[in-house]
Amino acid sequence: MGRIVKVSEKPPSDEEIYRLLAPYTAEWFRRRFGKFTLPQLYAIPRIKQGKNVLIFSPTGTGKTLAAFLAILDELFRLGEKGRLLDQVYCVYVSPLRALINDIRKNLLEPLEGIRKVAEGLGIRFKQVPRVFVRHGDTPQSERQRMLREPPHILCTTPETLTIVLSAPKFRQHLAGVRWVIVDEVHELAGNKRGALLSLALERLAHLAGRDFVRIGLSATQAPVEEIAKWLVGFESPPDVPRDCEIIEVPAIKKFDVRVVCPVPDLRDKLKANEAMYKLLKKLVLSHRTTLIFCNTRAGAEHVSYKLSKELGEEFKNLIGTHHSSLGREIRLSVEDRLKRGEMRVVVTSTSLELGIDIGWIDLCVQVGSPKQINKGLQRIGRSGHALDKVSKGVFIALDEDDLEECAVIARCIYERKLDRIKIPRNCLDILAQHLIGMSMEKKWSVYEAYALVRRSYTFANLSFEDFLDVLRYLGGHYADLEYRGVYRKLWFDEKDMVFGRKRGIRAIYAPNVGVIPEEADYWVLEHRSPPRIVGKLSEPFVERLVPGDVFVLAGRKFKVLAIRGDVVHVRETKDENPTVPSWIGEMLPRTWDLSIEIGKFREEVERLIRERGKEAAVKWVLERYPVDRWGAENLVRWISDQMRFGVVATHRRVVLEPWISETGAYYVVFLYPFGRKVNDALARAYAYKAGEMTGSIVRIGVDDNGFILVFPGDVRPDLKKLAYSLRPEELRDVLMRALKGTELFANRFRHVATRAFMLLRFYKGRKISIERRQLRAKILVQLLPDNFPVMRETYRELLEDYMDVEHAEEVIRKIHSGEIQVVVLEKQDLSWLSPFAQQVVVNAQADVLATLELKEAWLKRMYERLLRLHATESRGSQ
């Protein structure tokens, strides 16, 4: 049986490791570092023994050198004997091109250092190990050079590895691979790039004719056993994984994390915002280098602009902005200047989270909640980037939701609790890409290919029928598709159960391999006389729109009439509030694990307030969570107000609260604090059920702490009946019916069809426009049955990756079993909202309350209604 085990024995001594290394490698390390870190003590002997390892250790603890040192030592030994062949011995895979370039630079130091030390010891190498980078930006001249003089260490991306596995000239250089290092494992395992890599590694093992040593590196990951299985794959799927030893040493890095509330009362949004910039200025001036994280690119730009004004002219060249929408030259300039110590502060979104070498950072600041425990840990870990240094971080909260999340995340960082990532399974579009690549290698027996595919963790439980369905699609067995310009990509003989290469496929394959989708822009056409183009909307925003939705563009409110092709048809409306906030496509969803921790926090604070009073609850928060006094008081005040005017929603109690807006629309606010991916699934399913129950069009808005259903003003559903109207066993079917025909489904179908080579991005050297692919996708989606492989994968991706249908089913199941209590808030006056419901509605109306002034005024009006209500009730009870 394959064994996945955590290493628990005492580590070997430094001297034991030195004895394992060649004299020149040992001497170089002794002079350069002197002492091995724990990951190095554990990993080096295991890699030397040919064991698979997953190294789980914080940033700055020497993981990369732990992976490479044993390999470099072996390569130098071969070079010393003149036995270093012209082949790739080690493949290093990273999700980031910038990180790959960094690794190559960082490897040049030991390569040169070991060579010089050896010469000093009188040893001259007959050959010296070579390291090259290959990815999409690698010039053609470099690629040609690699054919003549292959690297001994190849640094690449999942996509490029997939391509070179089918490159007839280069693939022969990969046949002798002995080691594969996968960096930033947590960034790959939980998405389709990881699925692409997982199957690529099985193809590489098949090419090499033997298993190679697999080494995974990560600072934040859970559950480690499942991620280890993803890394090493299966000997006998789906039950027997290959052996892997998990080196988990998370406790060696120290953290100094605190949560700061900038004002005594977070209901004063304007003061909180002003105070934040004063606080940021103070933090920047008291540290040498500060890295500030925001949750969106627009947020990073805004904070950078306002902070530069606050810091003044002398900081003009000492502050920078870094995010993925900026040009490559600008990003590289910021990275290089940061590394050289020429910048005091950089404001970023997500682009500096991972292990790019940016030099010494004193302090990391997170503005607002990072929404995920792992994200918080990853970002704070960018400071004190050395084993013996403290990672220092400050979370700044600007509203109660943020404050609650930041407090719980900070405590989880200290307790080493992590979000569990979910690894996608049986991605049929990724399978299609690899089967086309495999067809170019040789004629395959279907059974041999199926056995290979199932050794990948991602496809270990793939059914044979699903495998055949993908082959049938690729082999042109759906003849009607050829009339629609979808031609076969390989030949497949189902009688003899063999498949192989279709002539001309090589020219199509490499330019179209990839996972990350291109997103379209949509024109917004206002229906007036004459019709007028108002502007553009992004795809992630449009895919949430349905006819009847209202949004803000260029300061005006528009109602969606229809979406046709790449045009959103609208008319201006002045009386209706927006139903979809403009940030909806960019914000990270809160994770399920963090949501459950927040439920536990609310439950305990509510208990303490009820049993011992508010001051005891404040004291408990200050003792248990790294928040300041203002933060603790705001949290207790917020939960206390909810107890007073509503019901506290937790992981074990959900609340339905009715409300009539100022415009007369009837809202039902579902206080379901399970995170946006779960709530997205629940909101769409409840809206579908509510539409059936009332015969009306029901609009939705989604937030991490709940969602809203918006009914026409005269419709009043039975809320208790609505809460129990969904059953767990029907949720997937209801969602499939709710999604079919939406813009979201059409766009996701286009992404899946592009990955599955049904729609090509490049053909005969020319790029096919995204608008043309969009149009073809909308035609195809009308023709294909739901059981067609590309359609099935679209549903799977939407329900399991984009949403979290499994945990949504769990919520519904627990509602029906009574494990989750359902409370319908009874109100005589439907013009007011409880504090928790206010936050959900504010987030859903983020565009009508586009400024802090409007948001603060709306919340104050709502709070004053609550106070009047309380005063009336108090008089009535006397």
Secondary structure blueprint with pairings:
Layout: E1 4-6, H1 14-20, H2 23-32, H3 38-48, E2 53-56, H4 63-80, E3 90-93, H5 97-120, E4 131-134, H6 140-148, E5 153-156, H7 158-164, E6 179-182, H8 185-189, H9 192-208, E7 213-218, H10 224-232, E8 234-236, E9 240-241, E10 244-248, E11 255-260, H11 269-285, E12 290-293, H12 297-311, E13 319-322, H13 328-339, E14 345-348, E15 363-367, H14 373-380, E16 391-396, H15 400-415, H16 428-439, E17 444-445, H17 446-454, H18 464-474, E18 490-493, E19 498-501, H19 505-512, E20 521-526, E21 532-538, H20 539-542, E22 550-553, E23 556-564, E24 567-572, H21 592-612, H22 614-624, H23 629-645, E25 653-660, E26 666-671, H24 676-694, E27 699-703, E28 706-711, H25 719-723, H26 731-739, H27 743-755, E29 762-763, E30 766-767, H28 770-783, H29 789-802, H30 805-817, E31 821-824, H31 835-844, H32 852-877
Give your account of this protein's structure:
By secondary structure, the protein is an alpha/beta fold. It is built from 32 helices and 31 strands. The strands form 7 sheets. Strands 1-10-2-7-6-3-5-4 form an 8-stranded parallel β-sheet, with helices on both faces. A 6-stranded parallel β-sheet has the order 11-16-15-12-14-13, sandwiched between helices. Strand 25 (653-660) and strand 26 (666-671) form a beta hairpin. Helix 15 (400-415) crosses helix 21 (592-612), helix 21 runs antiparallel to helix 22 and helix 24 packs across helix 26 (731-739). The longest helix has 26 residues, at 852-877. The chain starts with a strand and ends with a helix.
